[in-house]
Amino acid sequence: LPLQQREMNSFLWTIKRDPPAYMFGTIHVPYTRVWDFIPENSKRAFQESNSVYFELDLTDPYTISALTSCQMLPHGENLQDVLPRDLYRRLKRHLEYVKLMMPHWMTPDQRGKGLYADYLFNAIAGNWERKRPVWVMLMVNSLTEADIRSRGVPVLDLYLAQEAERMKKKTGAVERVEEQCHPLNGLNFSQVR
User: Fold this and answer.
1) Can you tell me the distance from the alpha carbon of 78 to that of 108, in angstroms, rounded to the nearest whole number?
2) Strand residues in 126-173 grouped as ranges (E)
3) What global pTM score does this model have?
4) Degrees, nearest 5: CA angle 42-50-180
5) How far apart are CA 27 and CA 54, in angstroms?
6) Residue 102: CB atoms within 10 Å
7) What are 120-175's pLDDT values in tens digits?
8) What DSSP element (H or E) covers 53?
9) What Pfam families does the database record attribute to this sequence (predicted)?
10) Residue 36: which H helix or E strand, with range?
């Protein structure tokens, strides 16, 4: 693509004021998959900014803890209590298959960094029987060979947050966990199929 067209397809919006403000739409994928395709105007806007605000503050332990607890079924319920028996059995078999395959899906680089398949499986799917169905669906969608092979590489949002902290920029979030989590928890079975 010509330079001008590449800059236009950058997901970067500029709010013309002094100093300018920028809005950048990110996607939740490992940054290595997209970094080379992010236009220079977006990278430059990030470099020149003093403050960077993200959807959620993924560097804040409270955010991670709140996300985890928001995904859980209420009142000590288990997934087995809320899913049809056949679906639950198929899900359990699929997760057993994934656990069996995970050592074959991992890269030598991941193993060299001390990542073990059992640890990785538990980090992603641990406590799955206590999670709400919508979160289990999202989890299952991320348990593919391609996604496992890129585990350990931060998603673009987290990478930018880590870079912002490293560069001593002021960081923050525009949403709270509850604002993201509760609408998803309000979906019923027919809405997530």
Assistant:
1) 36
2) 170-173
3) 0.71
4) 70
5) 12
6) 21
7) 899 889 899 999 998 899 899 889 998 888 888 888 988 999 999 999 999 988 88
8) strand 51-54
9) TraB_PrgY_gumN
10) none
